[in-house]
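re: ur question from earlier - yeah i can do the single chain one, its not a big deal. heres the input i used so u can compare w yours
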Amino acid sequence: MIDNVDASSSTLRMLVSEALKKWTTDSLFGLLEDGDVIVRTAVARELQIRGELSILEKVRSYVSDDRPFMREIAAFILGQLGTPLMPFKQKSISLLWPLVSDSDADVRSAAAAALGHLCYEGMPKVIEDCLIKLCSDNDKDVRACAAYALGNSSGRQEIRDLLTQLLSQKYVGPYAQLGLEILNDKIET
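and the output i got, formated as C-alpha cells:
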C-alpha cells in the first residue's frame, strides 16, 4: 500500500504535510507523480481533505491510468475524498468498481480499503459481496484490506463466519480481528 514506509519518516511526513497546506490544488496534482512515496501519500491526503469537485474530476482520469501507482493513488483519494463529510461518496464508489478487479494487487487493496471507508455508515449488499470475494484473493494485502473493510458491513452471519475463518491467516488475521471489533463496536453503540 501507499503507506509502506518505516516509522523513522514520521517527522518528515509531518513537515511535508504542513507545507502542502499552502500549495494550490493544481500544484498538488503534479506532486502525485513524485518519486518519493512520502510526498505522494502526503499530497493524496491533502487532496482528500480538500474534497473539491475539481479533485474528483481530475482523479477520475487516474482510475484508467496505465501506471498502477496512479490507479492506487486514485483509489486512496476516492476512499476519503472530502473527509469527514465525503460529499462525493456515490460518485467515488462508482469510480472504484473497475479498481476492485484491477490486475495490480496494490490497486485492489486500495480499492477494498476505500470501499470500507466510504461505507462506514452503511454498506450496500453489492459492496459486501464484492469484499467477500476479495477475501479469497491470491494477495494477502487484498485479503487484509477486504477483511478490514467488512468491519463496516451489515455484519450478517456469513460475514462474521468469514472474518472468523480469516483469523487463522498469519498476515490477514489482525485485519480480520479489526473488522470483527468494528462490527462489535457498532452493535454496542
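The two ends are 31 Å apart (CA to CA). not sure if urs matches, ping me
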